[in-house]
Amino acid sequence: xxxxxxxxxxxxxxxxxxxxxxxxxxxxxxxxxxxxxxxxxxxxxxxxxxxxxxxxxxxxxxxxxxxxxxxxxxxxxxxxxxxxxxxxxxxxxxxxxxxxxxxxxxxxxxxxxxxxxxxxxxxxxxxxxxxxxxxxxxxxxxxxxxxxxxxxxxxxxxxxxxxxxxxxxxxxxxxxxxxxxxxxxxxxxxxxxxxxxxxxxxxxxxxxxxxxxxxxxxxxxxxxxxxxxxxxxxxxxxxxxxxxxxxxxxxxxxxxxxxxxxxxxxxxxxxxxxxxxxxxxxxxxxxxxxxxxxxxxxxxxxxxxxxxxxxxxxxxxxxxxxxxxxxxxxxxxxxxxxxxxxxxxxxxxxxxxxxxxxxxxxxxxxxxxxxxxxxxxxxxxxxxxxx
Length: 387
Description:
The chain is mainly alpha-helical. The protein has helices at 2-20, 23-26, 29-54, 57-78, 84-102, 127-144, 155-173, 178-194, 199-218, 224-234, 243-257, 268-272, 283-316, 320-345, 362-386, and strands spanning 108-110, 113-118, 124-125.
């Protein structure tokens, strides 16, 4: 029996080594491949939207951003799962410093929002994108520290977490960047809810959020162009040659795609340059016009698959910290995808949020891949404990 037991034990160890021994084996490959596919589809759409005016410049930058994003995501994935908590204060402070710097004269205004730090060689950084990553891990740490999964967080812990979240949220609104602020609120609400916080905290957040949006719309917090965007959403025909022009052209482009589209590089609106900022905020309209309902639906399906894998990581996480990290990423992506696709379809106001992985923009690409790295980190941590 001892010989049989030794053989069985040896077989078990060998099986576990095959399953968990290699980092490459333990990665969530479906998640990784879906995010990579979205990034490559984005390259095609950006190329189609800009090749007539800018040649290969933007698509080349997009691919360079993708490579950098992959490196950043890989770096986060390989950080020791338990050691990741030690880096949270550093990430949070770095994000806050970036948000403070951007509202000083060092920051630059691009497309009406003072949200950028312009660097040499034509590069720029949008700190609010990295604030999303920092807030995910900061909230997860504060609401999971010294707790089991089934415990209810103390009121003091929830209050501290909300205070920590209020700092980057307030700095983002000072830019003002309503879209990024709404993303932060969405992930904050999701993490607090899943953490098991008492219902009164969740209800209070909903009330405060609604009041905050109301104040932003009725006071001078938002710039004039941002209020005009909301007006155009409420009444698209109010100024068809002014602020309503963009949303009208986007709807024409998507509507003209039909079921199968007009063909890549053959969209009338896209190739005619009728849609402003089509490579960034409105890249989805390129898919709608040139790839049709089928192609645009495939882009949405890939985004939904990424969200499903994030929720799967959250459900399987054995530690609360990892679960809350995955939930935070899922809430972030869910709201941002819904808002971007919605503003392209005319069912949501224009807020300037990019489509994750697909839209052109280095900061957005880096933050999105950092989020994928966080999900992979949680998954690798689960696999390591299982072995």
